[in-house]
Amino acid sequence: MSTDQNTSRLQSLLREPTFHFFIMALVIFAVYGISSSTQENVLELDQREIDARLFMQEMASGQALNEEQREYLTSAFVEEQILVQEALKMGLDNDARIHDILAQKMRHVLSGDVIQPSQEELQTFYESNLERYRTLPSLDANEIVFDTREELPVEVSNALASGADAARLLEFEAGNADPLPNVNKLDLSNIFDDEFAERVFITEIGAWQGPFLSNRGQHWLQVTSRRASRLPPLTEIRDRVRLEWIAAEEDLRLQTQIDRLWEQYSVRISNAEAEH
Predict the structure, then answer these.
(1) Alpha-carbon 43 to chain mean position
(2) 26 is a domain residue
(3) Quick check: pTM over 0.70?
């Protein structure tokens, strides 16, 4: 075949649109391959986040981190963020537990920046919730627990009936004694049961009430003093009232923000059963 014929065929091939398309495809494929092989994911992190993580670790351990520990924790944080990004790519955030965590964090965001109450707001909140702050009747008592669950000897029973002190009773029977200060009927019901709590609360001061049987032995209580229900003044419980005002204000602001978000969404709930 002559050189002129080869040249003519080459020129003819170069004029073919299909050939041009093929060449362009090869170029695009090559460029894409090169860029894909060198492309890196960019993970942008805020140094303040890393510093906060290091600070929290120092607070938890109670001592400063050395350089090696700081590098290790920084690497662990970066690794964590890389895994989070990969999990997001795979759609692993579509999980009920993750949704719950995110919702709770969003609630904190929406309810943030709560101001402190004024004296007038504090007084109004206190007066609107007086029964919340009224104390229950309470008492102080001595508790003695005899090791045995069996019937007590006569001398111990007589000493209990006479209102003898705990030290004297423990001379007759093995056990232990402890004070039980400032308890109300609900406290005693939780420690023992409702019936025993009721019996203790109607017992005269100085008298022993019992027994209440448990796996420790038998319990006896001696009431030493009583306190009637009272309403403490605001000055006495100011910090408690202030914190409860803040909690109530956070709830109110949070619900207000959530209501505004509801207005931005049109919610449609499909009926899977109806579709079948």
Answers:
(1) 30
(2) yes
(3) no
